[in-house]
Amino acid sequence: ETPEQVLAAFFHFCVSVVVVMSVLIETSLGDIVVDMFFEECPKACENFLKLCKIKFYHSCLFHTIHRDFLAMTGDPENTGKGGNSIWGVLAGEKQYFKSEIVPSLSHDRPGLLSTANEGADKNNSTFFITMAGGLERLDKKHTIFGEVAEGFDVLMKLNNAYCDEDNHPIQVIRIRHTDILHDPFPDPAGLHAPDSSPEPPRLPDGRLDDEVKFDPHEGMTEEEIAEAERIHQAEANEEVLVMLGDIQDKEEAPPENVLFICKLNPITEEEDLELIFSQFGKVIGCEIIKDHVTGDSLCFGFIEFADRNTCERAYLKMDNVLIDDRRVHVDFSQSTSRHTKDYFPSSSSKKSRYGHLMQKNGAQGNENSAGQSSVRERDERKRHRTDVRHEDRKRTRRYSPDRNRSRHYHDDYSRDRRSGSSRSRNYDSERRRDDRREERRDSRRHDERSRRYERR
């Protein structure tokens, strides 16, 4: 290639880089290069670029950081409750702009810039950067208008920043400067870029300046540092679960008297589990989780005991035990759904024998207050399920391979007997042997069902 061609290729490369890379954000931890989604979210991109042009974000703090979730900034008041759009700044009053939800954009990876709105179509200058993927539940609520192209090492430092109980960094992390690399939007009327950055606001109480050297693990041993990091990570995970709505409070813990059981046989019934686990003590509730559409067993369930010691004995004895020809797995339940029924509206709508585990304190015992009529109804349902199961097994045996093979033997025997063949004796003996095998199998199943029904 000639030098002119090389120079032209380099020029086109530089132009493409400038067009894609839109904003350089200089922070106290390092530089971040952001690509903007001009075509998908033009309003949000225009708002962000024009605010950068008037140095609106200079000295703004990352006031809230949730580890492995998001980091929020863009509020000059550094409280998360302020901020304004570029049109509100020019008009001298607080104004919002509408959300731009794009189905092709999702919070599925770290490094995405999204608006931190105050409600539906109430977007302003505040935004957050995702610190992890798998946050699709934020879709349809927040507008994604850009993503980090360079500076993921800065995001890692931002994610690992040491924060207090309210997720505010102990040592402030501020945006020092923003440089616009490419701006395809014309300036609105009345916009004038200032010559200097605004004065940094006063630091919140109890915060360290970003220029002060701060080591939260100073004077600690390696074991103490590892323990502090583990506790900090656990607290961050709890905070994320509270924000996502999986739990109501950080101090919420799973019950100590409930076991989780999985890998069950689809034919296993709740009464079977209750009978098996009652040998260790009183069983308060037992439920096998079923598909809400088909009603088929999902092969896992929960068992609640009267006390913790009984639950521990059942856990030590029943893990990896065969139940209905399936080797089940038993562990302590990690579900906190028993603390509230508001998070599980489906549990209150269906008559679940394990439903009291999904309800608040004081709602227990409602099933026992139904009187003997509920007991009779339960026995009727149990007999009906037993009859239906027996009919299904009979129907399966009727079309089983052994039955078909016996029928073929009978047809071949009749044909050979009419033709005078000597093979009829062999078919006759095989047919009688298959019939005896079927009779013994049916007898064993009948005896087993009878014993199980008597124990119930």
Automatic annotation (TrEMBL):
Tell me what organism the protein belongs to: Vannella robusta
Q: Where is the composition biased (Basic and acidic residues)?
A: 388-456
- In Swiss-Prot or TrEMBL terms, this protein is called Peptidyl-prolyl cis-trans isomerase
Under PANTHER family, the record lists: PEPTIDYL-PROLYL CIS-TRANS ISOMERASE-LIKE 4
Domain PPIase cyclophilin-type as annotated: residue spans: 26-180
EC number annotated for this UniProt entry = 5.2.1.8
What does the UniProt record say this protein does? PPIases accelerate the folding of proteins. It catalyzes the cis-trans isomerization of proline imidic peptide bonds in oligopeptides.
Reply yes or no: does the keyword Zinc apply: no
Q: Which PROSITE patterns match?
A: CSA_PPIASE_2, RRM
**Recorded catalytic activity of this chain's protein:** [protein]-peptidylproline (omega=180) = [protein]-peptidylproline (omega=0)
The keyword NAD appears for this protein: no
Q: Which SUPFAM superfamilies match?
A: Cyclophilin-like (SSF50891), RNA-binding domain, RBD (SSF54928)
> Where would you find the membrane-spanning parts of this chain?
6-25
Subcellular location, in the record's words? Answer: Nucleus
One cellular component GO annotation, for this chain's record?
nucleus
Q: Name one GO molecular function term.
A: peptidyl-prolyl cis-trans isomerase activity
Q: Where is this region: Disordered?
A: 184-210, 334-353, 360-456
Question: Per UniProt, which keywords does this protein have?
Answer: Isomerase, Membrane, Nucleus, RNA-binding, Rotamase, Transmembrane, Transmembrane helix
Q: What are the residue boundaries of the RRM domain, all occurrences included?
A: 257-335
